[in-house]
Write a structure and sequence with these properties.
Blueprint: E1 2-7, H1 14-25, E2 28-31, H2 32-42, H3 45-56, H4 62-74, E3 81-85, H5 91-103, E4 110-115, H6 118-131, H7 139-153, H8 155-161, E5 166-170, H9 175-186
Parallel strand pairs: 1-3, 1-4, 2-3, 4-5
Helix pairs in contact: 1-9, 2-3, 6-7
Bound molecules: adenosine monophosphate (AMP).
Adenosine monophosphate binds at residues 10, 32-33, 36, 53-54, 57-60, 65, 86-87, 89, 93, 136, 145.
């Protein structure tokens, strides 16, 4: 099994890169943001609860997201591995993931962090707002999501660093250039 966490601030390109990696390495692409958006549009109890957080750019509580993650993973017992996109977002979630994977006899192999400067993130997200209609892509919510990333999510990097799994990648360049940098890290497995 190959399990990769694709990490970085909102707008760093995680979703785009995760889809390409999932195809190339036959991994299941698990985006907690995508799962939450589909729960929201289906109007499930989780979706209704999550909406208030997502629309403000705040994190959905750990226990809801971890329960949801287990549920999705259990539906894919034959996956050759997972590419986690948007999870873990807190150190608590990272600890949960480590314990859960250990129980399955596996682990996270790499934390790949896409580094992109803040100005460029805002530019990309405002641009995406014109193409997709995501309720959390307004300037105010974008700025909050970046702040939440810095305060609550970036510490996850320290957690993986202690296991020697942290790989920073320059997230500026064409989709292919960034993909090749990520593939170079994965090929060291
Ligand atoms: P994303 O599509 O990854 O940018 O996620 C969109 C929104 O979903 C985030 O701003 C959070 O409100 C929520 N979300 C996604 N993943 C998580 C997570 N792992 N923990 C808490 N909230 C999450």
């Amino acid at each position: 099994m190959l399990n990769i966490v694709l990490f970085g601030p909102p707008g760093a390109g995680k979703g785009t890169q995760a889809k390409i990696l999932a195809d190339r390495y036959h991994l299941y692409h698990l985006s907690t943001g995508d799962v939450l958006r589909s729960e929201m549009s289906a109007g499930t109890p989780l979706g209704k609860k999550a909406r208030g957080y997502v629309e403000k750019g705040e994190l959905v509580p750990d226990e809801d997201v971890t329960e949801m993650l287990v549920c999705v993973m259990d539906k894919h017992p034959d996956a050759g591995g997972f590419i986690f996109d948007g999870f873990p977002r807190t150190t608590q979630q990272a600890k949960f993931l480590r314990k859960m994977l250990l129980e399955k006899g596996t682990e996270i192999h790499d934390l790949i962090v896409l580094d992109v400067e803040e100005k460029e993130l805002v530019r990309r997200l405002l641009n995406r707002a014109k193409l997709e209609s995501r309720a959390d892509d307004t300037r105010e919510v974008i700025e909050n999501r970046i702040r939440v990333y810095k305060e609550q999510t970036a510490p996850v990097i320290d957690y993986y660093s202690q296991f020697g799994k942290y790989h920073p990648i320059n997230g500026i360049g064409t989709v292919e250039e960034v993909h090749n940098r990520i593939a170079a890290v994965i090929s060291q497995q």
